[in-house]
Amino acid sequence: TLYKLYSCSEEEEQLLSPKLQEYVNLHMNSTAFQNGFLILQSLLPMDYSKESSLIKAVQSIFGQAISTAFPQLTSTTPPSEDTIKVSKCSNLKFGDYQCSAAMPTFGILKKLAAENSKSSSPYKSPQQVAAAILQAIPNDNPVIDSLEVNGPGFILCRIKSAYLQMHIQTLSSTGKVPEITSIEKENCVVDFSSPNIAKEMHVGH
């Protein structure tokens, strides 16, 4: 119930009585609830047809793959943005996004193996860890393809054209830009230099 209230809109919040709203706010602002909410979100399947953030969708795919490939690491702490480590490729020639989780994951596996003298890690390099993550990504996932391991363990990928097409069709049919709710909102200051908008801009601007 609190999860549903935490996800409700401002209009829906106004339907709550003041006392109930105060009670809900006390729980929602607690550290324990917020941490639990993040864990719950990571366990729920993402609705990719409604997720408007590309990087969030890519993070979800890699997070599920890491949980599948290394359940011993994620059974108590689900993968987070900090551990999944997805970012845009600086050179689009190599891919749209890259995941660099293999390097720190290899270090964690090596440390766990050292602590347990009776076993050793089957992964001898970050590249092998990256290959295990790649193998755990199903080919029929709706978001990414063209996966490959590059360098010390980077996993490169491209966004599926069908995934982009789905969102473009939704945008054209509804005429509404989907609200981005999965990222922190920030203020942005735009400085307008007052050029003459009726003429072409030149070096003087």
Q: Let me know the number of strands.
A: 4
Q: Classify the helix fraction into a percent range.
A: 40-55%
The total of helices stands at 10
How is the quaternary structure best described?
Answer: single chain
Main β-sheet description: 4 strands, antiparallel
Q: N- to C-terminal separation?
A: 55 Å
What sort of overall outline do the alpha carbons produce when their principal axes are compared? extended
Strands in their spatial order, largest beta sheet:
1-2-4-3
Indicate the structural class. Answer: alpha+beta
Strand content: 5-15%
Radius of gyration: 22 Å
| Uncertain stretches | none
Written overview of the protein:
There is one protein chain. It contains ten helices and four strands. The chain has helices spanning 2-6, 10-13, 18-28, 31-43, 54-69, 71-74, 81-84, 102-115, 126-135, 161-174, and strands spanning 86-88, 97-99, 144-150, 154-159. Helix 8 (102-115) crosses helix 9. The relative contact order is 0.11.
